[in-house]
Amino acid sequence: MNASHRPVHGAGLGLRRAFIAAAVEQSAPQVSFWEVAPENWIGVGGRWGRMFRAMTERHPFVCHGLSLSIGAPTPLDEGFIRRVKDFLDTHGIQIYTEHLSYCSDDGQLYDLMPIPFTEEAVHHVAARVRRVQDILERRIALENVSYYAAPGQEMREIDFINAVLAEADCDLLLDLNNIYVNSINHGYDPVEFLEGLPTERVRYGHIAGHRVEAPDLRVDTHGADVIDPVWALLAHAYRRCGVFPTLLERDFNIPPLPALAHEVAHIAEVQRRHAPTLERQAVHGRA
Q1: How far is 18 from 11, CA to CA, in rounded Å?
Q2: Which pLDDT score is estimated for 111?
Q3: Which of 26, 78, 200, 208 could form a disulfide with 222 if both were Cys (CB 3.0 to 4.6 A apart)?
């Protein structure tokens, strides 16, 4: 995907209530764009709503959802999807992404569950994605997720992801930490996996930290600093795909905003090293 067709550029950060007041009051020039889960902000008013509106009026935003449950066996919640559309329209947000997983059945499961890697699941998910895109009047992007078991597996993970993206004709939210975590937990080469993904569908990227449980087990927590092998995988992704917008996720053990901004600045530095000279101004320019 050409940089000129992306509504956000550079290095981003997930906005959290723990530091939104600091973000409103202090400029964070290292952060080129922000990300929120719409579920956390739809219908929020009062002081929190005013601070959030102040941010969306001043900065580019993307949305990364938590409860679309794109792979669930139950019908899509089209009322919820329409509320998401209203939220995106109200705040002028063009990009909506979700997880290639599911989180509900007859009720909320409060976790991201792995979709069986089967042809039947490909068709099921792709049809639901097309319906979501019709309602939102936007292309969406699906994130390659971390998972710890693969029930009913008939296809390789990489083949499943590629089949869903192709049949649904949607984009990819490329999570480098998830590739690394899965490569340890499921015993594959992360670079080879990355090489198998469709570069033309990458909308933007995620990078995050994780927890080491055992030599052969990593847990995707978003609660620690990004480690060197994940930084190296990000650099390889830029070499293969070109520089794409990339966002730091931090959900637990959240440090003060200046510390997070320092890690975001490291993303920007990796981007500068890999951006062709003629593209640097467009990719890293400040409005």
Answers
A1: 20
A2: 59
A3: 208
pTM of the model: 0.91
Please tell me the predicted confidence (pLDDT) of residue 218.
84
Q: How far apart are CA 157 and CA 147, in angstroms?
A: 10
User: pLDDT tens across 123-142, in order?
Assistant: 999 999 999 999 999 999 99
Amino acid (1-letter code) at residue 225: D
Range of the domain at 196: 3-284
Q: How many residues does the chain have?
A: 287
Pairing of strands 171-175, 140-143: parallel
Alpha-carbon distance 20 to 203, whole Å? 25
Question: For the CA atoms of 84, 89, 92, 98, what is the dihedral angle to 10 degrees?
Answer: 20
Report residue 68: phi and psi, to 5°.
Answer: -65, -35
How many distinct structural domains can be found in the chain? 1
CA distance 88 to 96: 8
Which CATH number does the domain housing residue 271 bear?
3.20.20.150
pLDDT at 252: 84
Average pLDDT over the chain, rounded to whole? 90
Instruction: Quickly list H helices, the chain.
Output: 20-25, 46-58, 78-91, 119-136, 157-168, 176-186, 190-195, 228-241, 257-274, 280-284
| 4, 170, 272 from 98: Cα distances, Å | 23, 11, 28
User: Cα–Cα distance between 109 and 232 in angstroms, integer?
Assistant: 34
Residue 10 near residue 258, CB atoms below 8 Å: no
Name the pLDDT band for 103 (thresholds 50, 70, 90): confident
Region 171-179: mean pLDDT is: 97
